[in-house]
Design a protein that fits this description.
The complex is a heterodimer of chains A (191) and B (501).
Chain A (H helix, E strand, L loop, with lengths): L25 E2 L3 H23 L9 H23 L1 E2 L5 H5 L2 H20 L1 H17 L3 H22 L11 H16 L1
Parallel strand pairs in A: 1-2
Chain B lengths: L1 H6 L1 H4 L1 H19 L5 H11 L5 H26 L8 H12 L3 H34 L4 H18 L4 H16 L1 E2 L6 E2 L13 H17 L19 H6 L1 H16 L5 H15 L13 H23 L6 H12 L6 H6 L1 H23 L2 H8 L3 H20 L2 H19 L5 H23 L4 H10 L1 H16 L2 H14 L1
Antiparallel strand pairs in B: 1-2
Helix pairs in contact in B: 3-5, 3-17, 4-5, 4-10, 4-15, 4-19, 5-6, 5-7, 5-14, 5-15, 5-17, 6-7, 6-14, 7-12, 7-14, 7-17, 8-9, 8-21, 8-23, 9-21, 10-19, 10-20, 12-13, 12-14, 13-14, 15-21, 19-20, 22-23
Chain lengths: 191, 501
């Protein structure tokens, strides 16, 4: 197997969790820019690691951070040099293959999800997210979208609250009262 | 006797048995649904089982782990998409078999062989771990430090993907692990004076981001890909078939255990090496390798399941994981207050034997669920991605939030998710990052302990290394691997080859 093996033609985009994307002998759109970004970020971190304790002592808190960020900077720079020498992939573009509109849209959805999670509460935010996401991806009618989204939300909610007892932000819905109501109902039935 | 009882804890408590069973079942399906992976499942589950008692939580996760390693072979065979790194080699001959309409047979043989390999791995774990752990008690801090470096280097350089990018990923992981207040001197590291960074970055947020969100974002590009309908009929293989490949599977299981037991190497490398071995020893395969040879399926599948038991040896006795999945399992043990390392065997031998028992049980469940329920299986695999992806994203957010009830973790998770997305696209392996985060603390602590005990003198430190055989072996291994990554190696190799030719 080629030591630089990075997946075959079918998996060059990292579709499979197992195989990192990219080609061995070509650079994908934006690959060089990413490598340069990593080099600059590593250098900045190296500078920041130096600031922790400088060359105080070998056992200083900054020793390992400095060593690792140095390795990061060197290896990232080596990647830059190597990538720059490769030919560009002609069949791919940044907006089509690396960062398509859907991906940007979903990153946006996730940020909004994070912002709304605490004020609105888990149930409402998740419901909105699932409905919008499934509507966008499945491109099916509202009946299908609502049924699937709300159905899976109910299952997830039951699993988390009952099986895993995970605490989720309650937000504006009177969730605790709702659970208590059912508990009372159950205990009333049991007694 | 106590040992015996601890191994069979799983059987005496029905709820634990059920959890192992459910875990294995879910693991197989998670491994088998394209777009879901074991690493993703275990990292998300850690945060949900957080509030559980340790025994049930470990039962569930061991089941998922065992089932997932096996389940990854299903998508490799049916769709040519390895569900786990360890299934890369399986796809090479499994997929051609499925294309010929022999998917049922391929799955059947894979299941039985995985069970066989898993059994050997667990046996070796039970026999070897107590000795390794006793031996590990004599390890100096410098040995631990060298082991950690060795592990990260090995994962970075040997796992699939570019070597230098692997090394970058490993060091990035160590740096992420160093963020926050240093536990020894309380100095701030990489906090940039932000108060929220003082506590460090939750490694669960990193894991879920890298393996959950980035994977889901990746899958967005294939949302319209049709789920492939496969006709699978008889899958239970005949006894004759199993017997025929038994000698080969014994050899490849041995390879699996040994490779798995090395710190830093796990199922993926074991499977590839076993595949290579099978290619060499099989003189006349019925079908050529790469076109659907049964040997090419038996070898990696026995090896990667044997590697599970093997990988638990360094993980439980030294606290050093073999690959991304074991790294996540270590994270799970940490979360439940267990500290994998030589002291685990002394302080909580019951816990060790319980895990051995749980692995064994999961292996049996794997055989049962693997050979049955093929009808439900084909249904589940056909769930459209347009539903799976939003659900993974939702679970990732909930999982990241649930551990500390903190919205900051959700943002870290999203950040690492987007970063991991680009890393995937450009061929940077993600496994070493997680390994680095997990080993960061161990590496840092042991380096400082080692150098302080040598009165901060590098000369004395190296003197210590060269006078201890163990340290010397580890040190030489680290140097060799490191040199093999640099241009120096290529020059040396050229010289050597010129001499011989």
């Amino acid at each position: 197997m080629h030591p630089e093996f990075r997946g075959d033609m079918d998996h060059h985009d990292g579709t499979s969790d197992a195989i990192p994307g990219g080609y061995v002998e070509k650079q994908r759109p934006g690959e060089l820019a990413f490598a340069i970004f990593l080099t600059l970020a590593s250098l900045f971190l190296l500078y920041s690691a130096y600031g922790i304790s400088g060359f105080d002592a070998l056992s200083a808190p900054g020793a390992i951070p400095m060593a690792t960020t140095l390795v990061m900077a060197i290896s990232a720079f080596a990647v830059v040099l190597r990538t720059a020498r490769l030919k560009k992939v002609t069949t791919e573009t940044l907006s089509k293959d690396i960062l398509p509109g859907t991906v940007v849209l979903f990153i946006g959805f996730l940020i909004v999800f994070g912002l709304l999670l605490q004020p609105l509460g888990f149930v409402l935010t998740a419901a909105v997210f699932l409905i919008v996401a499934i509507k966008v991806l499945a491109k099916r009618g509202w009946g299908y979208t609502l049924a699937v989204a709300l159905g899976s939300l109910v299952v997830i909610w039951i699993v988390f609250r009952v099986v895993f007892t995970v605490l989720l932000p309650a937000g504006v819905l009177p969730e605790a009262e709702f659970i208590q109501y059912f508990r009372n109902l159950m205990s009333a039935g049991a007694s | 006797m106590d040992t015996f009882l601890a191994i069979f804890t799983v059987f005496t408590q029905l709820d634990l048995l059920v959890l192992v069973g459910v875990g294995t079942f879910v693991g197989i399906y998670i491994g088998a649904i394209p777009g879901l992976s074991v690493t993703m499942a275990v990292s998300i589950l850690i945060s949900f089982t957080f509030s559980w008692d340790v025994y049930p939580a470990i039962s569930l996760m061991v089941g998922i782990y065992m089932g997932g390693v096996y389940g990854g072979s299903r998508t490799a065979i049916l769709l040519n998409i390895p569900g786990a790194p360890s299934a890369i080699a399986t796809a090479m001959d499994g997929y051609p078999m499925a294309q010929r309409g022999e998917a049922g047979q391929a799955i059947g043989v894979t299941t039985v062989m995985s069970f066989f390999g898993g059994l050997i791995g667990i046996l070796v774990l039970a026999l070897a771990a107590p000795f390794v752990s006793e031996f590990a008690l004599s390890f100096q801090p410098r040995d631990y430090m060298l082991l950690a470096v060795l592990g990260i280097l090995l994962v970075g350089s040997l796992s699939s993907g570019s070597m230098i990018k692997g090394i970058f990923a490993g060091s990035l992981g160590i740096a992420i692990g160093a963020v926050g207040r240093d536990p020894l001197t309380f100095t701030e590291r990489f906090t940039f004076d932000f108060q929220i960074m003082e506590g460090g970055i939750s490694f669960i947020a990193v894991m879920i981001g890298m393996f959950g969100v980035s994977e889901a974002l990746m899958q967005l590009q294939n949302v319209n890909m049709k789920a492939v309908r496969q006709k699978i009929d008889r899958i239970v293989p005949s006894f004759g078939t199993v017997k025929k490949y038994l000698p080969l599977s014994l050899q490849t299981s041995t390879i699996g255990v040994i490779i798995g037991a090395l710190p830093g190497t796990g199922g993926d490398i074991a499977a590839l090496m076993a595949y290579d071995h099978a290619k060499r020893v099989t003189k006349k395969p019925k079908v050529p390798f790469g076109q659907g040879a049964m040997e090419g399926l038996v070898a990696p599948e026995t090896a990667n399941n044997a590697a599970v038991g093997g990988a638990f040896i360094p993980m439980m006795t030294l606290g050093i994981p073999g690959d991304a999945v074991t790294a996540i399992m270590i994270g799970a043990l940490f979360i439940h207050g267990l500290n994998p390392g030589p002291m685990l065997m002394i302080d909580q031998p019951d816990m060790f034997w319980f895990i051995v028992g749980a692995l064994f049980t999961a292996n049996i469940f794997m055989l049962i669920f693997g050979l049955t329920g093929i009808k439900i299986f084909t249904k589940i695999v056909e769930i459209p991605r347009s539903i799976i992806i939003p659900l993974i994203l939702l679970l990732s957010i909930v999982g990241a939030y649930a551990v500390n009830n903190s919205i900051t973790d959700v943002y870290w998770m999203l950040g690492f998710g987007v970063f991991g997305y680009f890393m995937r696209h450009y061929g940077y392996p993600l496994g070493p990052v997680i390994l680095g985060v997990i080993l960061s603390r161990l590496l840092d602590d042991n380096w400082r302990r080692a150098i302080i005990s040598e009165r901060e003198e590098l000369g004395r430190f190296f003197h210590g290394i060269f006078t201890s055989p163990l340290s010397l072996v580890l040190f030489v291994a680290v140097i060799l691997i490191f040199v093999s990554q640099t241009p120096l190696w290529a020059i040396l190799k050229k010289r050597l080859f010129r001499k011989t030719s």
